[in-house]
Amino acid sequence: MSNRKSFLSQLVRQYAGSLLLVFLFNALSVLLTFCVYLLIEPFCKLLFTGQLSNLSPVSSYVVSRLDVYLDFTNLSTSITLLIALAILLYFLKSLFAYLTQWFMATLRSDLLYRLRNKMYYKILTLPLSFFSSKQRGDVVSRAVGDTQEVEFTILNALRHFITEPITILLFLAFLIYINPRLTLYVFLILPLPFLAIAKISSVLRRENKNSKQRMGVLISQVEETISGLRIIKGFNAQRKAEEQFQKFNDKYSDTQTRIFRRVDLASPLSEFLGVCIVMVVLVVGGTMVLSPGSSFSPELFITYVAIFPQLISPIGNFSTAFSNYKRGQAALDRLNEVLEADEVILQPEHPVAVDSFKDALTIRDLSFAYADAEVLSDVNFQIGKGKMVALVGPSGSGKTTLVDLLERFYDPTSGSVELDGVDIRRYDIAQYRSLFALVSQDVVLFNATLFDNITLGFPATEEEVMRAVRVAHIDDFVNSLEDGLQHRLSDRGLNLSGGQRQRISIARAVLRNTPILILDEATSAMDTESEHQVQQALDEAMRNRTVIVIAHRLSTIQRADDIVVLSGGRVVERGTHEELMKLEGTYYHYIQIQNLH
Ligand code: ADP
Question: Which of 16, 32, 458, 546 could be bridged to 93 by S-S, CB 3.0 to 4.6 A?
Answer without folding.
Answer: 32
